[in-house]
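pipeline stage [seq->struct] | target=HEAT repeat domain-containing protein | organism=Streptomyces chlorus | residues=249
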Amino acid sequence: MPEMTTSSPVPRADDADSDRLRALLERAATGPDSQAWSDLWTELYHNGSLDVADPLVLHTLADLAEVNKADMAASALHLAGALLVQADQRYETRNLRHQYASEVARLLGAANRWRQVTADRNDYCHLLEAVLNLEGDIHWAEGLVWGVVSEEYELECPDPDGCASLWGIIGERGFFSAAEDYALSDDIETFPLHPADPRALEGLGRRLYDLALADGHEEVARALTYAFGEATCPECEQRLSVVGQVIAS
Ligand SMILES: [Zn+2]
């Protein structure tokens, strides 16, 4: 199991990397610079060529999340949450969270403030994702929120005989499940989804539903009842938990 910091056989980021990291964060901080954010995602998250444990990273992202610029804050919160979840999973420890506990607390505070003032549906969903990622209690917030934002979940039937995968559609096209190639045919069989009864929601579903309502996002709350509800497999016609399959994937 690789260690995250000094005991790693991999040399620590050299000066050139530190300079590059600093330059990218400065560009992200000085204004709308989508290329800088894209490069930060690539180098910190996707290929790890820059060191996520560098003190600049979470400190700067926390600063940007607290600036009164919604787009900048959203970008900082999204990246910070994703980096923390990735570190949890990659190293199977919460060392990064512990090392930067005060920055994580600042980021979480900012995410909760932005959540309450964000009107755009999808921006709001991504702030919920950031809150969950920053809290770090679950590692599948991206999958959960992805389905609400894209209005569809790609699911696998848990039947041991192995059915085909299916789509759960949640949104303007309706609320149903269908075989994977539903988009290719008009006459494909669909099965209505079974949303959770909001009064019966528990745990995370209960909490997110109540948050969305309290924040004025009724449509997100409704979508969450489907995410925490059940779909019918088009092949074997058994019912399966949508969120259960998000977790399993
Ligand atoms: Zn099935």
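stage status: PASS
auto-comment: Residues 157, 159, 163, 233, 235-236, 238 surround zinc ion (CB under 6 Å). The longest strand covers residues 165-171.
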